[in-house]
Specification:
38% helix, 2 domains, globular, 14 helices, Aspartate Aminotransferase, domain 1, 398 residues, single chain, 7-stranded mixed beta sheet, Aspartate Aminotransferase, domain 2, alpha/beta
Length: 398
């Protein structure tokens, strides 16, 4: 039995089968490429699901890990460490926020946002606990976040869900307004829905939600777990509509591949939270915080964000040009370096064909190919990807 087959069999024997795995075993990464145990190279257009923004083997990330690991990895949040406080300051200085709560994942960041909103709501108007979420949303798989993720196949096995979540229609301000009641404390929205199919909110929709929250004294929560930290072409996707939220959740690329999330809040929200209201044993330990400093500093640089926009526009133009010769493609949409190719049929076979040709893609729904490459890709990588995609999708050549 070869080593690849041995890994596959161990996985099947010992790991709870919650994932549909690839048929190959990843061994290492370099730059924007992954390599399997047989040595085959793959151009990575998933980046660990929008996590590996700086690609693989980035020297600064490796140096931060080595240096901090030699000093201190973990002490818990009973004690202060400088890396955490420096990171918090960086996030505040580069956003709307006044304070930061750290956690370990996007779902945890959204759980914190839900808890903070409810505590704030009860402080500011009695029995206000309802949160409005939107169709197509994906806020996580934990029980609170799941209640705000209106997907029947995700929710059905786990009902009853957390009560007090009302679903309105995405990009429909009238629907959101109709969902508000005297019990509403907050609205949570993805400026760009990721798992929902790379669906950007219109500027008018986000501006209308901000106005609605101001009018009804509600919190606006922006979930930027997938679209934040440069992915959309600006540091935060909310910036593109000219609004500011009261709460923002982030995670995926924050610590360069190490698990980390954060909930950013205004002072008004932070003042509603007391010691003991929430917490996390592992959150923002000195190791992950040191790595996150590297990521935040790099992706917040204007030249870096300009690169994301430039390469993203190049990718989008190439996808639209290719789609003109591919009847299977019904729509191409995206911003920055997050793109969707919506097909007229099941996308899964084309993910597999991509693997065969040395390209890694993922899906966002049954018929959508989702592209989330490392933010450091260059035009040549886009050209290589488009050449493979042209051969993978049926229809005429570009």
């Amino acid at each position: 039995m070869n080593s690849e087959q041995a890994v596959i069999e161990r996985d099947q024997k010992y790991v709870v089968p919650t994932y549909k795995r690839s048929s190959f075993v990843v061994d290492h990464g370099e730059g924007v490429y992954l390599y399997d145990t047989s040595g085959k190279r793959y151009l990575d257009f998933v980046a660990g699901i929008a996590v590996n923004a700086l690609g693989y083997g980035d020297p600064e990330i490796l140096a931060a890990i080595e240096q901090q690991a030699r000093r201190l990895i973990h002490v818990s949040n009973l004690y202060l460490t400088e890396p955490q406080t420096v990171l918090a300051e960086m996030l505040v200085q580069n956003s709307f926020a006044d304070k930061v709560f750290f956690c370990n994942s996007g779902a945890e960041a959204n759980e914190a946002a839900i808890k903070f909103a409810r505590k704030w709501g009860r402080r500011n108007g009695g029995d206000r606990y309802e949160i409005i979420a939107f169709s197509g949303a994906f806020h996580g798989r934990t029980m609170g976040a799941l209640a705000a993720t209106p997907r029947e196949h995700y929710q059905a096995p786990y009902r009853p869900l957390l009560p007090g979540v009302v679903i309105a229609e995405y990009n429909n301000l009238a629907s959101a307004r109709a969902a508000v009641s005297e019990r509403t404390c907050a609205i949570i929205v993805e400026p760009i829905e990721g798992e929902g199919g790379i669906l950007p909110a219109t500027a008018e929709f986000l501006q209308g939600l901000r106005e609605l929250c101001n009018e009804r004294h509600l919190l606006l929560i922006c979930d930027e777990v997938q679209c934040g930290l440069g992915r959309s072409g600006t540091l935060w996707a909310y910036e593109q509509s000219g609004i500011k939220p009261d709460v923002m959740t982030i995670a995926k690329p924050l610590a360069g591949g190490l698990p980390m999330g954060a909930t950013l809040v205004t002072e008004d929200v932070a003042s509603a939270i007391a010691q003991g209201d929430h917490g996390s044993t592992f959150a923002a330990g000195p190791l992950v915080s040191s790595v996150a400093q590297v990521v935040v500093r790099r992706v917040s640089q204007p030249s870096f964000l300009a690169h994301v926009r430039e390469v993203g526009e190049y990718l989008g133009a190439g996808l639209r040009r290719l789609a003109q010769h591919k009847p299977i493609v019904s729509e191409v949409r995206g911003r920055g370096l997050m793109w969707a190719i919506e097909l007229t049929e099941d996308a899964a076979p084309y993910v597999t064909k991509g693997y065969e040709q040395g390209v890694i893609m993922t899906m966002a729904g049954q018929k959508v190919l989702r592209l989330l490459p490392p933010l450091v890709i260059q035009r040549q990588h886009v050209d290589d990807f488009l050449a493979v995609l042209d051969g993978v999708l049926p229809g005429g050549a570009e």
